[in-house]
Design goal:
The protein is built from 7 helices and 10 strands. By secondary structure, the chain is α+β, with helices and mostly antiparallel strands. The site of 2-amino-2-deoxy-6-O-phosphono-alpha-D-glucopyranose (GLP) has 15 residues, from helix 4, strand 6, helix 6, strand 8 and strand 9.
């Protein structure tokens, strides 16, 4: 496994060995690695060398460390295209996963200044504030807080929100979604995010804000979401500007 006579550095050989175990499925996502001491003993090399190999694999995102717990094999991230206005349910189904929701907040309230400006509302208009944990095959992926003017979807109920909001809006209310602007920022999980997303506070997350508009240009929803950093990566196609 490790050839001390090889010109290849020992840490590199260990790296390749661990990589091969991951590729062959002998080490699976979420598996814990033996401790540095155990690895050093089994390869009869120094702990420093093992640490270097592990650090390199952590930097390549193949492994991750959990404070006070150990080093684990990373999960493959979902690749989400930044092209096309799709719903969470559609995104999950296109990956062969079962979309799910846990509604944790549903409220009709008077809009804040930010929402009055965004949706150009009257003072006495109401907005829905909806907070859902979005699940894939039962596993939490994101927390989403959505604001929608009540007058756009007067019949929206808690029951409806246990499945797709976009399907309900389009198929049952004849809403014609047009486009959205979306921004992504790196952030760290708060205590609340951590509780709902099975993370530790401070773990990396992606903060995504989407403003969705109808075909006629009127604003439909404002959504602030927190996606698990260990599960998601975003992909975009870019063309040479001429
Ligand atoms: C994504 C978007 C949200 C949108 C949601 C609708 O998660 N970021 O802005 O509200 O999809 O998803 P669904 O139709 O599955 O409820």
């Amino acid at each position: 496994m490790v050839n001390k006579k090889s010109p290849l550095p020992l840490y590199y050989q260990i790296e390749e060995h661990i990589k091969a175990l991951i590729e062959s499925g002998e080490l699976k996502p979420g598996d814990v690695l033996p401790s540095e001491r155990e690895l050093a003993e089994s390869f009869t090399i120094s702990r420093m060398t093992v640490r270097q190999a592990i650090t390199n694999l952590v930097n390549k995102n193949l492994l991750y460390r959990k404070k006070g717990s150990g080093t684990y094999v990373s999960h493959k991230k979902f690749e989400q295209s930044l092209h096309g206005l799709t719903s969470f349910s559609e995104d999950m189904r296109s990956r062969g996963l079962d979309p799910g929701n846990k509604l944790i907040h549903f409220e009709l309230s008077s809009p804040t200044e930010e929402l009055i400006d965004h949706f150009t509302l009257e003072e006495d208009d109401l907005v829905y504030k909806i907070k859902r944990i979005r699940l894939a095959n039962g596993e939490p992926m994101a927390i989403e807080t959505s604001y929608i003017p009540v007058k756009l979807l007067p019949g929206l109920s808690q029951k409806v929100l246990s499945s797709s909001l976009y399907r309900y809006a389009e198929e049952e209310n004849g809403i014609k979604l047009g486009h959205a602007t979306q921004s992504l920022e790196a952030s760290a999980a708060t205590e609340e995010d951590a509780k709902h997303l099975q993370l530790d506070a401070g773990d990396p997350v992606l903060f995504i804000q989407r403003e969705t508009f109808l075909e006629d240009g009127a604003p439909f929803e404002l959504v602030k979401s927190t996606y698990r950093g260990d599960k998601y990566k975003y992909k975009m196609n870019i063309e040479r500007l001429r």
